[in-house]
């Protein structure tokens, strides 16, 4: 048994406006083993590139796809065909982040920011966190200034641990930005994973990350403080993950200053 389902989709490509760019499209629902399943044979056979040319690239994500994942880029006109226990509204669909097929094929899970629009306060830096399963890939981000039509090349830090990806971002000035996350495999294949719109209403008070030395190994994560300039007399709470470390010390001042030991808890933070 098969049904044709029509509705709106979010384009699975790297267009600047891909988060909000929706088009009318049709896909299928099939009834197998007393269960309805969703599939899109067009999207499973390829994708549209930035020039709107169809690129053949088979993937199995859109065959018998989990409805909880299918809803991120397919919104049926008849909400029954969402196949969700609680149907999602059209506004909720529009506010979802953009997750590509590669995001789900990579078995990534977002642990923060469930909306596609992230509004930052002037006193905070952006911190996104994802659960990851791959260890042989390189992650990188691109922050695109939508008003000035340019890529921002500074103000981003990525940390990977065994199961987590942390992304810290300083938004350079007020405005709207498109944030994209990519992965690069050992075979030098680059894929878009997800995208968000980031809005900053007022400029940040501090826009410099702490200096990071080469001894800061993979798996280490600096959670706070994230400002590179600390004010004398102010109190700061340091939180840093140093897997395998047995001791941490800090130095205030020049090379001849004394070193102050700081205790670590059981998980080396």
TrEMBL record:
Residues 93-210 form the KY-like immunoglobulin-like domain. Pfam families: Ig-like_KY. One of its GO terms (cellular component) is cytoplasm. It comes from the Eukaryota. PANTHER family: CYTOKINESIS PROTEIN 3. This is Kyphoscoliosis peptidase. The lineage of its organism: Eukaryota, Metazoa, Cnidaria, Hydrozoa, Hydroidolina.
